[in-house]
Amino acid sequence: VYCEPTWVAGISIGAINAALIAGNPPAHRVARLREFWEVVSSALPAPLIGAGTTTTAREALNESHASQVLLFGVPGFFK
Question: What percent helix, strand, coil does the chain show, rounded to 5?
Fold first, then answer.
């Protein structure tokens, strides 16, 4: 059963999601949310993960992304 919201609310990033939902026609809401999150969650390319490390590839990638956010912020977030 499809249920269209009559109102939305959010705090912090949820408020941005709510604004994207409320500010777009129903047919474009999902596309606009995806577009926003693709831009906001984009990161600088991750460095190559060296062989012979005890850290898993996923842990190394997460650490790399966390370091990039610390140093450069979240690319595209305030565009």
Answer: 50, 0, 50
Q: What amino acid occupies position 64?
A: S
The per-residue pLDDT for range 40-64, each reduced to its tens digit, is: 776 555 555 555 555 677 777 878 8
Query: CA-CA distance, 7 to 33, in Å (whole number)?
Result: 16
Residue 61 to residue 68: CA distance in whole angstroms: 11
d(CA 28, CA 42): 21
Q: Cβ(44)–Cβ(75) under 8 Å? A: yes
Q: pLDDT tens across 14-33, in order?
A: 999 999 999 999 999 999 99
Amino acid at 48: L
